[in-house]
Design goal:
The chain has a single domain, classed as Beta Barrel (Lipocalin). It is 21% helix and 49% strand. With 170 residues, it is of the alpha+beta class.
Length: 170
């Protein structure tokens, strides 16, 4: 009897684990994290004012986080960390303005290569009307080209800052 119970319990655990893995795979196909992983490497391009800009993507934390560093080594260096939160994709943007907006991506539609992030909240933001990044649309044009369309919000007014990047060849 004890062996039978142990065997049934073992099968139940295996079934639950298999269902958990399947659920994670379903979420992974729509959350955009795998799309972001394809960006790992160095990129260069132009910012909204035509100035040269760079961005680097790096997989970290045992493959669970993608670190984006924009304009490394400059006074305007910024870091954005992308990670899963259950079935969705979150980001925290460590801004040169010294605040940290957090945004959640909308689920990817079949075949889409654009991630649309919407503002959730921010740390180090004294009041909601203070200037902060409020949205991001990151588009993978192809394997060697991406665009960022950042939305800046201050005093209830918004403006877009567009960047176009090309993958650096090693």
């Amino acid at each position: 009897m004890n062996r039978t119970l142990a065997l049934v319990a073992s099968f139940a655990v295996v079934a639950l684990c298999a269902e958990s893995v399947l659920a994670q795979e379903r979420a992974a196909s729509t959350d955009g994290f795998d799309l972001l992983k394809s960006l790992v490497g160095e990129w260069e391009g132009k910012g909204p004012d035509g100035s040269v800009s760079s961005v680097t993507y790096r997989l970290t934390a045992a493959g669970s986080v993608i670190e984006e560093t924009m304009n490394a080594g400059t006074e305007h260096e910024m870091v954005t960390m992308y990670h899963r939160d259950g079935g969705s994709l979150m980001m925290t943007h460590y801004c040169a303005m010294r605040n940290q907006p957090r945004m959640r991506a909308k689920p990817l539609k079949d075949g889409s290569k654009s991630l649309t992030f919407a503002f959730v909240d921010a740390t180090n933001l004294a009041k909601a009307s203070d200037g902060h990044m409020h949205g991001l649309v990151l588009t993978v044009v192809d394997g060697d080209h991406i665009t960022h369309a950042w939305t800046w919000r201050a005093e209830e007014k918004e403006e877009e800052h567009a960047f176009a990047f090309t993958r650096k060849k090693s």
